[in-house]
Amino acid sequence: MLGEFAPLFMFLALFPLLLAGVPIAFSLAAVAIVFSYFLWGAGALNILVSASWGTMNNFVIIAVPLFIFMAYILQKINVVEDLYDAFYKWSGPLKGGLAIATILVGAILGAVSGVVAAGVIGLGLIGLPQMIKHGYNRKLAMGSVLGGGTLGQLIPPSTNMILYGAVTGVSIGGLFAGGISAGVFLASLYIIYIFIRGLIDPSFAPALPVEERATWKEKLFAFKTVFFPGLLILVVLGSILLGIASPTEAAAFGAASALAIGLANKRLTWEIVYSSCYETLSVTAMVGWMMIGASAFGSVFSGLGGNAMVADFAMNMPGGATMVFVVAALFIFILGMFLEPGAVIFLAVPIIAPILANMGFEPLWVGLVVNVILQSAYISPPFGFSLFYLKGCAPEGIDMVEIYKSSIPLLIFCSYSHLHILDSTGIPNYALFVNAVLTIKIVRELTLEDLNLTH
After folding, report:
1. Does residue 4 lie within any of the structural domains?
2. Over the stretch 14-34, which tens digit does the pLDDT of each residue have?
3. Is residue 10 part of a domain?
């Protein structure tokens, strides 16, 4: 009886450990060890060794610490401040200009780092106080930080896309190409919304006073601070998309280029290099252990017939392939609200991706959809990670309820973006109708004094 339902019990055994505060990596490994030992004997513990060896020999994963190191170096040499200052000078005369600058800087940060925490915290420390100081609606200010900061999940080089490609074998370059389209589309929706709100109610997102606006000389000089990050984006992403370099090779070049930018700006110090190396090692170790634990869990789960059980359940589900896709998407979204996106990729994707592929879904398209869903999970109450990143760096007087409310318009636009992507394949069949309903709802809310949909 236990053997037949052992895969289900494996998943159920995870929750007490997670609720007890055990890290996801060690929770996965512990469940795998216990089940393999008691069901197959001590010899089955070799599976943990095999999982560790396979993780250490995955060449693609080398790109993760290199991109993380690049992100930390750029963050510590104040590239975030430089970018925000440049866009701040150019967008100041626009209504909602500071919020638009926050979205644009977030998009560029996503393209040079791919680390969501760095984007949200950087924008929260720099952009949020400026918007509040100049009388912006607080929900709009926080929402622009959340929206811009999480674009790093989609706009390459995204570490989660690298992990997805490593787990499934899907082309990372293809995921990056799709991520550019999805990220730019979502950023455009945010900017259009901010601009329209500013036009309808200037007090909601006022333009900078005339005396605080930059001169043309200051605006032109600001281009200097954007040149090096822009060049880095072109070289790193261009080399991948053109097939000149693999993601790992491009990541190595990006890390070296970040050091070169720091030297050129005369801001790089040994303390910055040391702290960046230490923090990169810490994050990479977490990812590595997570991969080991997930690989061990997945091997035992598959060995017990879990993959076959899930596939059989999916094949017999009413509604066919469309319903299987919807359930899988909801499962990914719910997991993303409680677990680190990397953990979701390691835990759920090896089970879900093959089933969707067997049902005729394009693997690359599935990978893009999963990453878009995880981007939404970052900002979804109650446990979206970006919400807590923002809380940790927000000025005094901002509570979690207010941050939760600021995320609701973003979720509407993320849903619209999801349906836009789904429309391209006709799934679901009523996507156009839902798009229309959402559009009417958004336009209606634009006429209200303050996002009544959050009340």
Report:
1. no
2. 888 877 878 878 888 888 888
3. no
